[in-house]
Amino acid sequence: MDQSRDLIARRRNVVPPAVAQFAGDATAERAEGAIIIDSDGREVIDFAGGIGVMNVGHSDPTVVEAICQQARKLQHACIHVATYEPYVALCEKLVDMFPHGDQTRAMLVNSGAEAVENAIKIARQATGRPAVICFTESFHGRTLLATSLTSKVGYKAGCGPFAPEIYRTDYPNLFRDGSRLDVEEFSERALDSFRRFLVNTVRQADVAAVILECIQGEGGFVQAPASWLRGLRELCDEHGIILIFDEVQAGFCRTGKWASYQHSGVTPDLSTWAKSMGGGLPISAVIGKASVMDQAAVGTLGGTYGGNPVSCAAALATIRRMEELDLNTRAEQVGQRIRQRFLELATRCPQVADVRGLGAMQAIEMYEDDSRTRPATSLVHTVIQDCLSKGVLVIHAGSHGNILRVLCPLVITDEQLDQGLDILCHSIMECSGQTESSPA
Ligand SMILES: Cc1ncc(COP(=O)(O)O)c(C=O)c1O
What we know:
Layout lengths: L1 H13 L15 E3 L2 E3 L5 E4 L2 H4 L8 H13 L11 H13 L6 E6 L2 H16 L3 E5 L8 H6 L16 E4 L4 H4 L5 H18 L6 E6 L13 H14 L2 E5 L23 E4 L10 E6 H4 L15 H17 L1 H22 L3 E7 L2 E6 L10 H13 L2 E2 L1 E3 L5 E4 L7 H18 L9
Parallel strand pairs: 3-13, 5-6, 5-7, 7-8, 8-9
Antiparallel strand pairs: 1-2, 2-3, 4-10, 9-10, 11-12, 12-15, 14-15
Helix pairs in contact: 3-11, 4-11, 8-9, 12-14, 13-14
The structure holds pyridoxal-5'-phosphate (PLP).
């Protein structure tokens, strides 16, 4: 543990604590597939995927080769200065994969937050309206506009004043708000509440865009009902509001489809992408209807590094590899295996209040007791530490940090997955004080 301990001490000496550590004192020296080797040479099963970035797996040889080849050829030109093929090829691929209407456009930047910023700028220019509606428990990044759109107050402490003309309403969370209702009834009630919001909180004619995750990532893998998404689409059409789906965490095979919105059959006007698209290199995209994207004035979008050639090459190779490996099918299999274990755990551990997710995006929500009034924040923290000491890297989610989520590389083998789940489930039983004679 010496090398890891030294590295963490050096980090603390120079990096401010606000750059948080979500998985205890984990370190990473190198990685392959679903395994990270830490600074002491210890193998750790990766259930975090660098927060949902490594769907294609660490160090995939074809992705690494594409990065090296491109780096030898052209590392940077800036798309505002000279046009290079990988940028155009990636946009062609994205437009082909994710049609948003008769004609689709795509543009590239560097991070999820930047994609969100650009999508909002496009929506405002296309509508000539200022207001943006977002949701409770949503996460859209850490730039000032993205932080303003983000719900969790812990990510915002002391960072204001926030961007104006942001209006937040309740995300349709069936587990929290509608357990006793049938899903259709719940959707209708949530849509009614949204209609009232457009009258009593922000004038519909002032609203440029509604932005949401179809399944919330940082919020704890809460999924909006398909009927609610369809109703929201109709409301946006009726009032000329741009519908933006943030696919940054859920996109690129995580849920068993290329886009999480494909589960509902609802297509947005604009969408934002990052994380697993680049196979570990920083790259993000805004994809959208040409009729909306083309309204943005020349010079208002982009940036020096946006769609860097090396990142574009990584993204193209990553997508090709995801297709070859059929990672959407694999996500279904991985998700079923995780879900089965979590459901079984829930029968033995009363602190597990909910098991939920879509495809390989699976989570459990934990409370101190049956009343569901006391989120099990410190218990989840203890489980994360315990798992790390036993060789599994896992992270939390949710406003209270009482949700454990799995975002493992989708190339994880069944053996690695089972081993990781054995450790995680056993740790949850042990740390929550349930007697456990042998690993779950
Ligand atoms: C849904 C969603 N949107 C946006 C972001 C911000 O992405 P980035 O951290 O790359 O800026 C995240 C990051 O977790 C996310 O989950």
